[in-house]
Amino acid sequence: MTKLLILNGPNLNRLGKREPDIYGKSSLKDLEEELRSNFAEQLELSFKQSNWEGQLIDWIHEAEEKYEGIVFNPGAFTHYSYALRDAIASISIPVVEVHISNVHAREMFRSESVIAPVCVGQISGFGFDGYKMGLTYFLKRSG
Ligand code: DQA
């Protein structure tokens, strides 16, 4: 079975409490349950979240040996972390960038992603469904 990492960056542990008008009322745990119940029979999923850039970088490096791909919401690091970008560029497994909100319809600084150029693609604005779209990409890829 295809093994994938669902990686969430800073402040995403606050989902459900954090700006619910933008990010919704469901928690990170709810997201995990939703994805597990939708994909349990087809994909082996691992979930990790950190508020620390270095921790995310270490997990990205380690992921190359453990998983066939990553669905990654880098949170605000999306917009300025060259270190995360370089970490993704340094591994050979594909990464899909996901955002719950439409980053192109918000503040100007959110419309730039320094991560997107080293990803397969970016999914933005579809709420939790964006993670499902990312997983569907990997499902189709694995045939
Ligand atoms: C986010 C969008 C980012 O701009 C923001 O900093 C987040 C969440 C999203 O999922 O919509 O933390 O990545």
UniProtKB/TrEMBL annotation:
Catalytic reactions on record: 3-dehydroquinate = 3-dehydroshikimate + H2O
Top EC group: lyase
Swiss-Prot/TrEMBL keywords: Amino-acid biosynthesis, Aromatic amino acid biosynthesis, Lyase
Coiled coil: none
Keyword Amino-acid biosynthesis among UniProt keywords: yes
Pfam families named in the record: DHquinase_II
Annotated positions for site Transition state stabilizer: 18
EC id: 4.2.1.10
SUPFAM superfamilies: Type II 3-dehydroquinate dehydratase
GO MF term list: 3-dehydroquinate dehydratase activity
Active site per the UniProt annotation: 23 (proton acceptor), 99 (proton donor)
Positions annotated to bind substrate: 73, 79, 86, 100-101, 110
Pathway assigned to this chain's UniProt record: Metabolic intermediate biosynthesis; chorismate biosynthesis; chorismate from D-erythrose 4-phosphate and phosphoenolpyruvate: step 3/7
Oligomer status and interactors: Homododecamer.
PANTHER family on file: CATABOLIC 3-DEHYDROQUINASE
Protein purpose: Catalyzes a trans-dehydration via an enolate intermediate.
Family: Belongs to the type-II 3-dehydroquinase family.
Protein name: 3-dehydroquinate dehydratase
Source species of the chain: Evansella vedderi
Gene: aroQ
